[in-house]
């Protein structure tokens, strides 16, 4: 019973994140939150299956994902602050004018 609840929760998080990405493609902050929800879902699966198989590898992988997600969030939020300073919005449709 507990297995199905945990896996169902993880599936619902992924589904919610994908729907959020599809529905709201313009707001970069919501898109970042949806990506973080996908990372959370992966962490739930790694920790659950690590406990189920009595190995620590899944928990180590979950910690690695948390570190990568924190770094990704810091970079993304810094870029959003710079974008807000220049364009006064975090609307992704304004990013078509960016040149390298």
Describe the structure in your own words:
This protein is an all-alpha fold. It has one domain: Orthogonal Bundle (Helix Hairpins), CATH 1.10.287. The chain contains 3 helices and no strands. The mean pLDDT is 91.
Which key terms come to mind for this protein?
100 residues; mainly alpha; single chain
Helix content: over 70%
Indicate the proportion of strand residues.
Answer: under 5%
Q: Give helix and strand order, one letter per element, not per position.
A: HHH
The CATH first-level class comes to: Mainly Alpha
Integer average pLDDT: 91
CATH topology, by name, is Helix Hairpins
CATH architecture: Orthogonal Bundle
Q: Give the uncertain stretches in residue-range form.
A: none
The coarse silhouette is: elongated
- Based on CA atoms alone, the radius of gyration comes out at 17 Å
Termini distance?
Answer: 53 Å
Summed up, the domain count is 1
H/I helix tally: 3
Q: Could you give a short account of the major beta sheet?
A: none
- Strand element count: 0
SS content category: mainly alpha
